[in-house]
Amino acid sequence: RNARVLGVAECSDLAVIDIDGDGFPFMAWREGSADVGLDVYAAGFPLGDPEYTLTRGIVSKARADGDRAWTSVDYVLEHDANIQPGNSGGPLVDEDGKVVGVNYSGGFAALSSQFYAIAQAEAIPVIEQLREGKDVYSLGLNGEAFVDAESGFSGIWVTSVTSGSVMDKAGVQPGDIISSLEGISLGRGGTMGEYCDVLKSHDHEDTLAIEVIRLASGEALSGQLNGRELA
Q1: Residue 108 CB partners (closer than 8 Å, separation 6+)
Q2: Full-model pTM
Q3: Three-class SS of residue 161?
Q4: Could you tell me which of 139, 143, 128 has the C-alpha nearest to residue 170?
Q5: How far is residue 41's CA from residue 194's CA, in Å, rounded to a whole number?
């Protein structure tokens, strides 16, 4: 089916996509909070498998840390219903099939049995803005934060830039490393936390100082978002 992206939220790891047509079946949000101990089910098609998959678990933490290398959500649900790549964006539901959250990321090495979903209290306000065609805390960046273990150097490695976006107009390119924004060093905790803190404390049209390392040419560049291009 044809579809178009209405809006994206870099710092919420969410997007709203409008599918051509009407009358599609859908799952409703659960009413009330998702407390620790709630039985939940992760529904979807992980690992590209065309066969529908359902796994079961409980909510183990109601307000877990939502900072990741690619985004920064204020808090997320921690649960143990197994999810894999391909589950992201799919629903975490209760026993009545009501949506508790949006599956978000798998476990880490030390927490391999724990998984995460964006809670509805965090997701719904963002989704409502995205449905209206508004990007939320987004400048056109697709990237991943990192920290070099030996030197301690950190930043955001840019994987792609949306055409016509604020990042694109400033001259940021794929392969660049954004080292600072508004004088704040980025990626120090291996997450997008600092980057998203700057976005959340400014308007989309604000002029922001940016510093970039361009490994392809060995250049250190500085400029502004919504202002002077990188040079």
Answers
A1: none
A2: 0.88
A3: strand
A4: 139
A5: 32
